[in-house]
Amino acid sequence: MGSDRAELAAFLRSRRDRLTPHQAGIEPFPGARRVPGLRREELAVLAGLSPDYYSRLEQGRQANISREVLDALARALRLDDVERAHLHDLAAPATTRHVAAADVPQRADPGLLRVMGALDHVPVVLLGRRATVLASNALLRAVLGHPMEPGTSFARFLLLDPEARRRILNWADFAQAMVAGMRREAGRYPHDRRLHRAIAELRRADPDVARWWDDHAVRDYASAIKRIRHPIAGDLVFNIELVAAPQQPDQHLIIYTAEPGSTTAGNLPLLASWVSDRG
Fold this sequence. Notes:
By secondary structure, the protein is α+β, with helices and mostly antiparallel strands.
């Protein structure tokens, strides 16, 4: 079984295990159940496939899979848009574009840098492939207590640095989202050796990361609330928003916004002044 088909098979099994016959809207097939979710035969019927064909899919023995079959499986498994896209990525052979793009060094998008420059009153970081830091502003570095040098890994900071766990009060939410985002990226760039080495290192270094990776959850970056306990500014609450340039879909400008009139909004100018005095 090729590595790409092994990932496809594992993803299908993980999504099948999380969906019960009741959730799928069918009566369980008779007989003893040895799986937490749907049986292969039940999923095959739901997707309009023969049990033998679906077994070949989950065993990685089916070379070519049509878009219609993938869409039928996505509907049967109740996949969301991100999971559906991940399923299609895993089923398709890596394209030359994906292989080439993974090896080209990234430069920060000039347009996103200009946006960052206009947002020096809030924390901002620009991330590229593999959650690599491409740029950050002083307020972001002050909020997270990390230098965020360009070329370093934001994923490594978030998942392994004790300071991240201390400062980010809802750390587990963001750590799980980071792992799910890296799995999504791994499906998009299956031949990115640097990405897969980084993932293997993170899995070895932390049992939580290994467990979350084995869940096969996938997620794209999305808006979320981040709670920070800062040693100078106290408790801060941010809405995390993301901006991407159409020509640079692998770069994300992550902006920490504060509700107008909130304690966080009032404390940010004080923190910015503190940063300025230090610098």
